[in-house]
Amino acid sequence: MDRNEREAPVQERAFWVSPGRGEIRPVVVAEPTLGQVRVRALRSGVSRGTETLVFRGAVPPDQHERMRAPHQDGDFPGPVKYGYLSVGVVEAGDLSLLGKTVFCLHPHQTAYVVPVTDVTVVPDGVPPDRAVLAGTVETAVNALWDGAPMVGDRVTVVGAGMVGCCVARLLSRIPGVEVTLVDVDPTRAEVAESLDVAFAHPSEAAGGRDLVIHASATEAGLQRSLELLAPDGEVIDLSWYGDRSVRLDLGGAFHSGRLRIRASQVGEVALHRRHRRTRSERLALALELLRDPAYDALFTGASAFDELPELMADLTAGRRTALCHTITYPEGSTDSSMDSSMDSASDRSVDRET
């Protein structure tokens, strides 16, 4: 093969969104240079809460810069290439990484070139499907660094989505901690059992909690979180509400009980660890924690890459429910018939009222 032909840019495909609309577009990926790698995607995960907010065009204008994802193209409200849970195999670039499976905070795309420092090697024993949870488990780790639960604490997690479930599983591994996962969806009781934690409907959840982690992204969930606290207790709020206003009743026990609400988000390392841990170390820890097969209970579906426009519209409109929905790519799929159909599919876009 001629050198110039070998080093010519390659056309790949990426998922883009505008408010209420998703489409797959061609994208040119150049050959990696010194200090870079080209990653061939195997799996990516849909972060339902944040990505559906982006799909709705609900990122507030004053948060457009803060909410930019690594390797994002375009600007909010769109069109924008967004996403941050990607797992693939290094197929070119740095020789020490060739052939290794890596995690990268990258949008949904069939292949991409990034700096070596932007990929983290997936440990042996962590399959690609489970590895897409690295960014979510990293968020959960940060929340526990913020909340600092103690041995023997009574802790409730309100909201049994991806983040809430990951927080609950980490809490379950702390000796003596009593963990309850709370959600309005009774089907999440089975997931809670797989994670080795108790489950309760919000109306039946026990109070007197030392710590509540809120991850439902709802006003009602945050209010209930406050109601579950013991005096001097704290709510760590992991929810991002986008452009929605949140109203709380701060009468009653809020002042007399000296209750606290504190935000936690993964953009910064939690203050308790900020000067002793880097973001890279936090992500590497998350991947190590994913050796635990209990996290497989979070997977509730998979779709081919070409189905992303319709999938995101359905998830945003509530026509399809999911905890962690994974995306498979042609080279990463184990179903040859799926590969064939994906290879022959034309670029598609879907419009939906959300």
Describe this structure in words.
It is built from eleven helices and 18 strands. Mean pLDDT is 90; it is low at 1-6 and 332-354. Strands 3, 6, 7, 8, 9, 16 and 17 form a seven-stranded mixed β-sheet that branches. A six-stranded parallel β-sheet has the order 12-11-10-13-14-15, with helices on both faces. With 354 residues, the protein is an alpha/beta fold. The chain has helices at 3-6, 48-56, 128-131, 134-147, 162-172, 188-194, 219-227, 253-256, 279-289, 308-317, 336-344; strands at 10-18, 21-29, 36-46, 73-74, 80-81, 86-93, 101-104, 111-115, 119-121, 154-158, 178-182, 198-200, 209-214, 229-237, 260-263, 299-304, 324-328, 349-351.
Describe the structure using short key phrases.
354 residues, alpha/beta, 7-stranded mixed β-sheet, 6-stranded parallel β-sheet, 11 helices, 18 strands, 28% strand, disordered N terminus, disordered C terminus
Major sheet: 7 strands, mixed
- Structural class by secondary-structure content: alpha/beta
Number of helices: 11
Determine the strand fraction and express it as a percent band: 25-35%
- Tell me the overall shape: globular
The residue fraction in helices comes out at 25-40%
| Number of DSSP-assigned strands | 18
Task: Give the ordered list of helices and strands.
Answer: HEEEHEEEEEEHHEHEHEEHEHEHEHEHE
Radius of gyration based on Cα positions: 21 Å
Q: Termini distance?
A: 49 Å
Low-confidence spans: pLDDT under 50, at least 5 residues?
1-6, 332-354
Q: Mean pLDDT, rounded to whole units? A: 90
